[in-house]
Write a structure and sequence with these properties.
Distance between the termini: 43 Å
Oligomer: single chain
Number of strands: 0
Order of helices and strands: HHHHHHHHH
Radius of gyration: 19 Å
Number of helices: 9
Shape: globular
Largest sheet: none
Length: 210
């Protein structure tokens, strides 16, 4: 099944852009923590504190990336298995996930039901979920005292960096499980690049019109 001339929806395109931004955030060969420490050592005290908040934000950002992956896995699976034939049917299904109020944990459970994932990867998803929830709801409440020492500050950067790197690895693994659905829908690298170029053009035109 293939929907001809399908336009890349904003929902899917944004998730692709997330990955591009994350993957291009650092262009060196070092890992995230090595880059963080390099930046840390070149900051004054205020800059070091701001850097910690920046890496916390980056960790939350990458957690949104993988959450988008779960959504993509679910809607592409449903579209291809429900024999969807029109753009309206496609968009109706995407809207269900785009407007869903389900939690990241709910999405993970649905992914595990719809895809044959190895147990190790299932465990990785549960681990990432637990760490993401800790970051969002508890991290600074329990670790704020680490701001008082350089050692503690580096521990925080290490925690955020490890989460970022490990989540990116899992996200890349998940991509292989729904590539076949992307191909069936005609979602190619070329079509993504074209859509990205159009999005960039529209944003430039919007800003210039202000």
């Amino acid at each position: 099944m293939r929907i001809e001339n399908i336009a890349i929806c904003d929902f899917y395109l944004k998730s692709i852009l997330y990955r591009i931004i994350i993957n291009n955030y650092y262009r060196g060969n070092d890992g995230t923590y090595e880059n963080a420490i390099f930046e840390y050592e070149n900051e004054d005290d205020d800059g070091k504190h701001r850097l910690i908040y920046a890496y916390f934000g980056l960790a939350i950002y990458i957690s949104q990336c993988i959450e988008e992956t779960f959504s993509n896995m679910l809607w592409t699976h449903r579209v291809c298995n429900d024999n969807v034939k029109t753009k309206k049917e496609l968009n109706d299904i995407i809207d269900i996930f785009e407007n869903s109020k389900k939690t990241m944990g709910n999405f993970i459970n649905e992914v595990k039901k719809n895809y044959e994932l190895p147990n190790e990867l299932k465990d990785d998803l549960e681990n990432i979920l637990a760490r993401r929830n800790f970051l969002v709801h508890k991290y600074f409440k329990l670790e704020v005292q680490k701001f008082h020492t350089e050692f503690g500050q580096k521990e925080m950067l290490k925690y955020f960096s490890n989460f970022i790197d490990e989540t990116k690895i899992i996200d890349n693994k998940l991509m292989s499980y729904y590539n076949i659905y992307r191909q069936k829908l005609g979602i190619t690298e070329e079509s993504i690049e074209q859509a990205m170029a159009e999005m960039e053009k529209e944003e430039i035109e919007r800003v210039n019109s202000l």
